[in-house]
Predict the 3D structure of the following.
Amino acid sequence: MNNTRNNLIILGLVLVLIAVSAYLIFIRQPVARATQLGLDLKGGVRVQLEGYQHGGSEVTREEMQRAVEIIRQRVDSLGVTEPEIRLQGQNQVLVDLPGISDRDRAVEVIGRTAQLGFYEVLAFEERAGVPEGRVDEAKRDIRESLRQDDAYREGKTKILFEESPNPGGEGLYVAGYVVRERPDMTGDAVESANLGRDPAGRLQVEINLTGRGGDQFFDLTRQIVDNALERGEPGTGRLAIVLDQDVVSAPVVDEPIPGGQVVIQNTSSPTGLPEQEARELEIVLQTGALPVNMRVLSVETIGPTLGTESLRSGLIAALVGFGLVLLFLVAIYRALGVVAGLALLIYAFLLWGLIVAIPVTVTLPGIAGIVLSVGVAADANIVIFERIKEEVRRGKTPRTAIQVGYQKGFRAILDGNITTLITAFILFAMASAQVRGFAVLLAIGVVLSMFTAVVVTRALLGLLSSRGIHLSPAMMGVSKKSLAGAR
């Protein structure tokens, strides 16, 4: 009686797990979006970056690891599902972005160095209404003119440029600024960056500085005001806000600015900063500057068509393998094989539910891991069923043979699955991300197979026995010839 109650409790638990899996897969969200697919199945963008330092100094492993963490934060801000970011060699990073179609934006966000600097403007020259095709020519003219200025000193100062829409009409606004070689204040002082709007509704990026950074910014703006007074030109000092050697803005500073708040804006446009540009700027400032410069070595776009074909091929292979395993079990073990087949179907559905619940990103190697775990689950049943057949040949009743078979077979199944789990853990720790997907799904499948192959099949067979359903030796795949030989 107790065994029957235990079996009913186990099967009731299985029904609850199936119901939860069905909710996660079909009800909580559209089934097409329930399972997260990797780059090789969903399509997307793969970017290969190389880190370098100005001056030719060697990039360290620690700098590249820090760069990977910053890139990961930026990719998370893009809303990419399960990106794959890994180091290659000493100074390269490989970034896989499943589901991304705008490759240019992805490259801009993840590869931008985002080194923010604040400079006192020592001299400047501007041109308005420059046609787009003549921007480089305008910059050359401004550079030559500023090099003649007394503020310019070779090796101690440099010339940076601003390029923005012309507030007065057609063409572009181009300005050159003489600043010191090194920034008067760096982006290390940035505490946070957020999108905002000015009183006119123009989009801008608002930067909050740390306490120390606020003090530095106040001192810098006071210095700019004092230097303008010394030149006899009060209220004309400028502060250049520079991102990756490009001047974002250079507002006039007519008094020291306390409070540690800086705004990057574009007052020449009625809408302010372009929305996409502002969001990208917010992301790169929020996550911090990359410790090294990045150049793009290659950008590969994997189309959704190729991903769909790979998914279809992988699913067909998995379903064919699953079907062949079911046919084998039924052909060799008859009624036992039918029970094992039902347990495998339960296993497959629960595994899908786990993949959605965790969630696990499914890749082609991951599908291979699923197929292999199905084989592991079937192997556990085979070990137990062979033990049951041995006990039947020795003359034991089917009910006793089932009990003894599970008792004797469990140790062998446990040893084999622990060995497989150790292998999966080693693969996860030592291999690349693609192989890690294989290892994760293999490990999950092995643990789940222990439950379905041992607990669920035993509960099903126990329930059949308690209901008076007689399993003859022939229904278990034991031939009369083998029975006669055993006697």
Observations:
- The domain at 2-34+304-486 is CATH 1.20.1640.10 (Multidrug efflux transporter AcrB transmembrane fold).
- The chain has three domains: 2-34+304-486, 44-113, 116-277.
- The mean pLDDT is 85.
